[in-house]
Amino acid sequence: MMNENITAEQEPTLVKEQITKELSILDKVRALSINDKVEEMRKEAKETTFVAGRMAVAGQINVFYAGPNTGKTLLTLKLISEAIATGSAGDHVYHINLDDTFDGLIQKAELGKRHGFHEIPGANFPNPSESFAEMVEMLIAENLAHQAVFILDTTKKFTDVMDKKASTRFMSTCRRLTEARGTIIALAHVNKNKNHENKSIPAGTSDVLDDCDCGYVIDLLSEEKVLGGVKRTVEFRHLKGRGPTVQSAVYSYVQYADGDYERMFYSVKLVDGDEADRAREQKALQVERLRDAALIAEIQKLLTASGGAIQKDIVTQLVANDAYSHRTVRSCLQRWSCPAEEGGIWTVTKGENNSSIYKLIPPN
User: Fold this and answer.
1) Does domain 292-360 have CATH number 1.10.10.10?
2) pTM of the prediction?
3) What span, in angstroms and rounded, lies between the C-alpha atoms of 202 and 184?
4) Architecture of the domain whose range is 48-288
5) Domain range annotation of the chain
6) Share of the chain above pLDDT 90, in %
7) Mean of the pLDDT values across residues 200-220?
8) Those residues with Cβ within 8 angstroms of residue 209's Cβ, 6 or more apart along the chain or in another chain
9) Which of 18, 78, 173, 324 has the fewest CB atoms within 10 Å, i.e. the most exposed one?
10) Which of 291, 220, 229 is nearest to 259 (CA)?
């Protein structure tokens, strides 16, 4: 029945306005759909690209849990360096290091300079949670998020992992980045106590693990005394994954008594993996050797002529013309003094007064 205050001419207009109003709400909802953008998105999508072994996938939120001194930062930086060397990770890999000493920052920045990742200390990243969220929004606004890989070290510096609301806000920021095709590798801690199977348990509420895409726990499997330190073998144990990630991966490294982080970095080796893992490791090794090619040739020439020499003499001769620094020569000597099957070029033994004697590994 027509409202007595509305004329016959006005009623159809009001009905039309009401329908338009209802449709406009549905149109707004429909505008959120991506159905019409599938082809465009498919063109932008990439095949699965790993950025840390086969445990971390580009464009996803990846979380590595580990206890203190397990080597989570060391292993992650080594694996991301392999990804950079093999072209899986680009020029914008950032290690936001909020959990280190001044000397530790220097060591990692030196490695970053050589291998292509960028070290960001806590002093340059105040209010981590807010600063990171702001950075993410800026990357999205400038359509640059897809180029960025962030290593967040550690999650407890970015959020209160014991607070569900805080953890959820942090993971929402991470998801904002990955929805724009950015990549995150977050390093996190485990509980002091292990489960009934003696396996480590992620610390904090379940929100970080629930909301991530790939999750692994790094457990120490064994320790063995070796020359100069302790060889540690660890396992990445799968907790959660989206895509063709592995259920387990085993690596080893030597924790040297003198605390030389660079030597530890180059001691990281794959223990248990398939052909794809071996191929990736070998390709990264080839890239590494190309970086040192000129200096390797000089050292080989010197060792061939002498039949063997102590480190002090090698360094003295090679820095005489100012072509190389003392540290550069020492680092190169250490880098390639490993078994031939691991890419080694020379051996090192201890001589008088604790001197290091280098000799070429004979060709097969």
Assistant:
1) yes
2) 0.77
3) 18
4) 3-Layer(aba) Sandwich (3.40)
5) 48-288, 292-360
6) 54
7) 93
8) 63, 202, 215, 239, 240
9) 18
10) 229
